[in-house]
Write a structure and sequence with these properties.
Layout: H1 7-17, H2 20-35, E1 38-39, H3 47-51, E2 59-63, H4 88-101, H5 112-115, E3 119-123, E4 128-129, H6 141-155, E5 160-164, H7 166-169, E6 181-185, H8 190-193, H9 203-213
């Protein structure tokens, strides 16, 4: 598995890459990609760590699994490529953004511009088999990404951790709430959003208000 990440992450995660579980995970992922159609493309598995250096992280948005449809997953949670139809969860994210900050729904679903501003778009599991949601869960990715969350919590100051849905909320235990701001709500998926657990959370404006109060740049969502 080609771990092509920003040097700041490489220094922080170097010991993790050498642990036995990560070597087993690497072997598993290589085998899966050889024998099955898997997403995202191999060179994009660690894209979140390429676009958003550890030294720049001011916001963390946590997803669970990469999208498992053809052409969707691109290494950033909730994001798709510029020429890919937006999944329902992403549409609901943009709808909330529209009502929260009066920002029109964009023409495409790429969130790369968020990542480049210091938003770590992290899935708990970084790979998935095509059309099989959750197929790479429990293989070691969660151990790795839990360590990433703990690293951000330890190394950075005044980060906004945005946790949508029950799975993401469980990660609060990894975050020092005395140092950081934690925002939680329902998941933007239609099932949750349509029950009233998503719309109106105002997480985008709340994030910018907090960052501004700490002397940090607001995110241009």
């Amino acid at each position: 598995m080609n771990v092509d990440i920003h040097p700041s992450w490489k220094a922080a995660l170097e010991q993790e890459f050498d642990k036995p579980y990560f070597k087993l995970l690497t072997d598993y992922v290589k085998k899966e990609y050889t024998e099955h159609k898997c997403f995202p493309p191999g060179k994009k598995i660690f894209r979140a760590f390429e676009l958003c250096p550890l030294d720049d992280v001011n916001v963390v948005i946590l997803g669970q699994d990469p999208y498992h449809g053809v052409g969707q997953a691109n290494g950033l949670c909730f994001s798709v490529g510029e020429n890919v139809a937006m999944p329902p969860s992403l549409i609901n994210i943009f709808k909330e953004l529209e009502t929260d900050l009066n920002k029109p729904i964009p023409a495409n679903g790429s969130l790369a511009h968020w990542a480049k501003q210091g938003v770590l778009l992290l899935n708990a599991t970084l790979t998935v088999r095509a059309h099989q949601a959750g197929s790479h869960q429990g293989k070691g990715w969660e151990t790795f990404t839990d360590h990433v969350i703990e690293t951000v919590s330890k190394e950075r100051e005044d980060v906004v951790f945005i946790l949508w849905g029950g799975y993401a909320k469980k990660k609060q235990r990894l975050i020092d709430s005395n140092k950081h701001k934690i925002l939680t709500s329902g998941h933007p998926s239609p099932l949750s959003a349509n029950r009233g657990y998503w719309f109106g959370n105002k997480h985008f404006s709340t994030t910018n208000t907090f960052l501004s109060s700490k002397g940090k740049e607001e995110i241009k969502w």
